[in-house]
Amino acid sequence: MSSSPIAVADHVTRSFGKHTALDDVSLEVTAGESVGLLGPNGAGKSTLIALLCGLRRPDSGTVSIFGGDPRDPRNRRLLGVTPQATAVPETLKVRETIDLVAAHFADPLDRDETLQKFGLESLADKQCGALSGGQQRRLLVALALVGRPELVILDEPTTGLDVEARDTLWDQLRDYRTGGGTLIITSHYLAEIEALAERVVVMDKGSVIADGSLTDIKRRVDIRRIQLNTPELECTLQDLPSVVNLEPAETTAEGGRRITLNSHDADATVRALVQRDVDFSDLEVHTATLEEAFLAMTSKAAS
Ligand SMILES: Nc1ncnc2c1ncn2[C@@H]1O[C@H](COP(=O)(O)OP(=O)(O)OP(=O)(O)O)[C@@H](O)[C@H]1O
């Protein structure tokens, strides 16, 4: 297995009308890596994937897979994809659909084994149009893997799946990884990225705002929100230990100021509040959601 880049986006920009979906994004994925693209709605994840799969072209910058233009079908021979919104052929049966896709590859997986691995055996003779949303997702991921691709790109593969179906897919994707395959996967869920990716790229508003190991990114999104009523100035609070950022103050029903501090270590921040004799009341601490953590990371990146 080589360690050459297998998928590259180099200073890529892509707009839709006046909206910039990707703004000077660069990313290099090496053979054998598993990369999770994480970010809130509209961050640009699907647009980046569409470029890497050759479904769209960048306005500026370049994209390549296996050293060539992904719009050239020859460069997609070793690529398996499940885009976010894909239709299955309504009238083809599940097994026929697997056969059809497998026929495009030199050394595909065995059909029956594929059906069994993805829990599709009992659905083999059903028309794809009659499958539930979750069953269709399972089939689509099976189709992405049936050609034994060297690179698999999945856009939110488990959205709409129940836990059991999700676990089945995760197992199959882990097997693919163990076999040396390269994986790029988008998700809104840290748990999914944790299960499948070793490297995490966080996107927001068309830019890459963080790129690191899973451990590194988990530490960065592990944020506590500390809310308190206080007349203190923002600059005093910003200096407290472990504070990532402050959100704009809100006005309480009584006309006071309610401040939200995002902190990597709520205990250290609160201890310092007390030690410094900061005037505060109504203290609340809770774990930031992933969306809140993204916002904190973005505002930190901007400052
Ligand atoms: N075909 C299109 N026409 C117009 N705007 C688009 C189009 N595709 C994407 N956009 C816009 O580009 C931005 C990035 O969208 P994209 O789908 O890449 O984000 P995402 O991170 O994949 O979001 P989600 O998690 O919701 O799928 C969004 O503001 C979206 O509205």
TrEMBL record:
<dbReference type="InterPro" id="IPR027417">
    <property type="entry name" value="P-loop_NTPase"/>
</dbReference>
<dbReference type="InterPro" id="IPR050763">
    <property type="entry name" value="ABC_transporter_ATP-binding"/>
</dbReference>
<protein>
    <submittedName>
        <fullName>ABC-2 type transport system ATP-binding protein</fullName>
    </submittedName>
</protein>
<dbReference type="Pfam" id="PF00005">
    <property type="entry name" value="ABC_tran"/>
</dbReference>
<keyword id="KW-0813">Transport</keyword>
<dbReference type="GO" id="GO:0005524">
    <property type="term" value="F:ATP binding"/>
</dbReference>
<keyword id="KW-0547">Nucleotide-binding</keyword>
<dbReference type="GO" id="GO:0005886">
    <property type="term" value="C:plasma membrane"/>
</dbReference>
<dbReference type="GO" id="GO:0016887">
    <property type="term" value="F:ATP hydrolysis activity"/>
</dbReference>
<keyword id="KW-0046">Antibiotic resistance</keyword>
<dbReference type="InterPro" id="IPR003439">
    <property type="entry name" value="ABC_transporter-like_ATP-bd"/>
</dbReference>
<feature type="domain" description="ABC transporter">
    <location>
        <begin position="7"/>
        <end position="230"/>
    </location>
</feature>
<dbReference type="GO" id="GO:0046677">
    <property type="term" value="P:response to antibiotic"/>
</dbReference>
<dbReference type="InterPro" id="IPR017871">
    <property type="entry name" value="ABC_transporter-like_CS"/>
</dbReference>
<dbReference type="InterPro" id="IPR003593">
    <property type="entry name" value="AAA+_ATPase"/>
</dbReference>
<keyword id="KW-0067">ATP-binding</keyword>
